[in-house]
Amino acid sequence: MIDITQLLILGVVVALGYFVFNGSRHDPREPPLVISGIPILGHIFGILWYGVDHWGNQAKKHPGQPIISLDMFFTKFYVITSPDLMQAVQRNAKTLSFEPLLFFSAKNISGISNQRTLNLLKERDAGGEGLSSKILHAMTPALSGKALDKMNIQMIQLLRPFIEKLGESSIFDLYEWCKDATIAASTEAAYGPMNPYKDKAWKGRRRAANAILKYFQDGGHNQASELTTMRLKISIESGFTLEEYSKLEVGTLLGLVSNTIPAMFWCLFDLYYRQKLLDEIREEIQANALIIATDGTYRINLTAIREQCPLLLSTFQEILRTRTNSAPTRLVLKDTLLADEYLLKAGNTVSIVSELVAQRPEVWGETSGVFNERRFMNSGEKKESRRVGGFLTFGLSPTICPGRHFASSEILLLVAMVILRYDISPVGGVWKEPKIAASMVSIMGPIKEKFLVEASARKEYAGIKWGFHVEEDRNRTSIDIPQMEEQSPLYEAARSGDLGFVMILIKNGANIH
Ligand code: HEM
């Protein structure tokens, strides 16, 4: 029988062995190694418990270090908190790449196991055909210009009935309402009237893949957005079967809604919670973005919201900034000397913790934790200049979210109409922040409990009919995304991904080449 003393001795021996082992495989030129209190598996437990917040928690304990190493036993994570090193990552886009994460996401989210199909998806540098990144490159044009206008028009038609219903319902769960509205509007905008997600019987990965397969077999894509038709065309031309492609397509739902739902919720929460700001923004929309049509309908003009409502736009960005836990992530493909100082070894992962970058004096410094609705205003009395690393909610170029214009339109239109037409108050009267759920697929703080509210129609608009107005080709949101210093060909190939992939990566081991 082992007694407590023997157990303690065993623990000390294991810990010593771990430190010696760690020390031997840590090059002194690598960023300083942060040892977990629990030997061997400490950082793995940390990630499982706190999710990606574990990196930030560790970096907070070493505020003087612009970069640290966390040993996960089978791989290392380099955690960056300085804007200079963030830019150094951008300059080394060829060796610090997002591309392998795309393959991992496609493989793990879709459940594709066929080797031939996986090889089609795998990046070229790793011996595959590079289909994942080819599809992603094509997503940027499919989510801008005329293709975006078409999606926006479909999306707003679907949002309106949800907004109308607010006047009828008594008490409802605001988060669930955001979820229903976003899923209905986003999926129909992408897939058209034969939307495979219309009927909720698709729940579950296999069922969803079957529903999508049937949708394609029935020709649903003939009335769909360019986003859907382009992805299908590229994949089939590259050698995918329709069955395998339907599995891959299941993952698109995550991109379409996983961040938009919580972002929409927080926008409503943060505005209704601040009555004075709410009134100012209502006035701004009323004065600049409300059209009264000849038939008496009141229409919210999306272009005017983007171009003539600076306070709403700045507030929107500030809400996204303060509510995100984004951490743009790259894989080290080849040994890389970052900023001539830190050795990043191939097979490991680099992650930039946006919350901590924002706290650096050269970014937002002491004001980073303060909600300032005018922070992103380009005009007006309280102008603040752009800061490198000040806004990482949509990623970091060359890997930025291709859906940001669509998501912004959806949230801004819905929020503008809801706040003009309704007063909303929480049941119990107090705006208490709900608890956040640890998420593998969302960086916008999805909540893990109900948030019950009551809505009442505002008297000044009694009896008015409402609609939206979208002008073609003028619907991109101007948002501060840190660009590369020089626009390289890589910039053209702007790519993006989801933090959940990092978890998938941990599960699979990072040594992917
Ligand atoms: C408020 C809403 C959204 C936020 C905050 C957001 C944020 C992000 C971020 C941070 C990334 C990763 C970039 C990186 O790692 O550097 C990303 C990737 C991506 N986003 Fe978004 N996004 C949103 C909405 C959307 C929408 C509506 C779509 C689709 C129409 C979309 C499609 C994608 C895609 C396809 C990727 C790449 C992931 C993949 O390859 O599967 N996103 N997004």
UniProtKB/TrEMBL annotation:
This is 25-hydroxycholesterol 7-alpha-hydroxylase. Heme binds at C401. Gene3D superfamilies: Cytochrome P450. Pfam families: p450 (PF00067). Signal peptide: none annotated. The keyword Transmembrane applies. The chain crosses the membrane at residues 6-21, 33-52. PROSITE patterns: ANK_REP_REGION (PS50297), ANK_REPEAT (PS50088). GO terms for molecular function: heme binding; iron ion binding; monooxygenase activity; oxidoreductase activity, acting on paired donors, with incorporation or reduction of molecular oxygen. InterPro entries: Ankyrin_rpt, CYP450_monoxygenase_sec-met, Cyt_P450, Cyt_P450_E_grp-IV, Cyt_P450_sf. ANK repeats lie at residues 485-513. Belongs to the cytochrome P450 family. One of its GO terms (biological process) is mycotoxin biosynthetic process. It comes from the Eukaryota. Keywords: ANK repeat, Heme, Iron, Membrane, Metal-binding, Oxidoreductase, Transmembrane, Transmembrane helix. Its cofactor is heme.
